[in-house]
């Protein structure tokens, strides 16, 4: 199954695109939605989808900016551009970022399905890189729990895996090294505020091994003795806020700001502290409340969706069914309402 992110600021178009993607299940699954480029970028760093369908014109960073971030880090993601502007200028910019799928609004369902199927072939060539990204994410998330021996073994194994890509895929190797370096530095800064960001400057094999060995030594020296004790309490405060303000329009950027962290720091530490992503946590709180409201026969389902923070009925239905395994209407019927 290929996980797809739909980034579009117009809600009705976003819903339509998501429904088009879901019609190709089980090969494709709409794993998430975003209303602007910043939200989409945060989702990518937290969930690592295989395909991103993005509008060009969006607030808070547009689709071209998002495409550039994906291209710059050489991420194993296929980007499909959607635009309401029949302008070759945008197409030329998109081509610079390796994008070959450019669809005009209103998007034809068959055209989108064709673009998704063609994306499968490109994704096959990215499988080793995608595995590398997943391995990096797993390593960084588990790092605070590792003992010294395990940490050194796992870090050396991960670096060796990336270095093997040198001969056949130097671009992927460089991208993975950049991701690993950024993730580790962000983790260090989150747990150890005095840590100074140390970029990787020497990509020779000796330089790479020495660089990451130095980072591991710094971690073992400073963590947990000098780790910030306020980190977990900050995440707890955010959870308490979500628990009581679940109906609000949350963004990762806003919640991260409440914790005085960057989005990537916050996403990583939230999952580390709670055992789940921030998006999953929010959805679970909302659906739990929705199940209670569905027991009130005077309330319409669309009213309940709005009351728990979903302005889109199709999105509410999808999330509810994903977590409860049945639709809100079926849930009501089974409750005898």
From TrEMBL:
The keyword Mitochondrion does not apply. PROSITE patterns: HTH_ARAC_FAMILY_2 (PS01124), RESPONSE_REGULATORY (PS50110). Keywords: DNA-binding, Phosphoprotein, Transcription, Transcription regulation. The modification 4-aspartylphosphate is found at residue 55. InterPro entries: CheY-like_superfamily (IPR011006), Homeodomain-like_sf (IPR009057), HTH_AraC (IPR018060), Sig_transdc_resp-reg_receiver (IPR001789), Tscrpt_reg_AraC-type_HTH (IPR020449). PANTHER family: ARAC-FAMILY TRANSCRIPTIONAL REGULATOR (PTHR43280), HTH-TYPE TRANSCRIPTIONAL REGULATOR EXSA (PTHR43280:SF2). This is Response regulator. It comes from Paenibacillus piri. The lineage of its organism: Bacteria, Bacillati, Bacillota, Bacilli, Bacillales.
